[in-house]
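We now fix the convention by which a protein and its fold are recorded. The integers have meaning only within a learned vocabulary of local backbone shapes. A record is reproduced here so that you can trace the correspondence yourselves:
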Amino acid sequence: MRKVYPDATAALAGLLRDDMVIHSGGFGLCGIPDILIDAVRDSGVKGLTVVSNNAGIDDVGLGRLLRTRQIKKMIASYVGENAEFARQFLAGELEIEFNPQGTLAERIRAGGAGIPAFYTKTGVGTAVAEGKPTAEFDGETYVMERGIVADLALVHAWMGDHEGNLVYRRTARNFNPMMATAARMTVAQVEHLVHPGEIDPDHIVTPGIFVKRMIQVPAGYEKRIENRTVRPREAA
């Protein structure tokens, strides 16, 4: 199977439709599949439900899909740093399903593992648990959370080979590996594309069986920094 496509538009051809559920990897701006997100924006699909730790920042990453009103609902754990997100939510223009961060990660992992639901203590007695089944285990109350399987997962990796095996770099790994397993179709953007056999098998995080299509990010690709923090330069 040919997995490497010339660009994001080609890689997403035939996969996008209105009202679909999309996993989008990343944490803030770290490890986000921004080139693939731009191709989703350019396609014009709308009514999307997007599962992501957060919604990027204004006009970067998922913030661009918010700006064009293509997202109907966000399933997320953190939504700071995005004024347009806040504006749409407070105006009743955007649905939001908040999740504790660990719960969100486990819901995605469970979806990839074929687990339809699980119980957790996190959120019991709060608005997070409203309307959800609860059960007692060993005298403690737990709330049931459903696993999430998306129609499409968009992920970013540091390195990948032509067979779709992926390696992530440091904290850019975040939600990407679990999302890659929890969708009916996974498309990856990689910084470094190598030939099969060039990645040490012990270093592979996402096996190629989960990745159906991929692109290499173009030369000059810019990694955005959400908040740059540096120490004052010491006097000579």
User: Anything to note?
Assistant: The helical segments are 8-11, 34-43, 62-67, 83-90, 101-113, 176-181. The chain has one domain: 8-216.
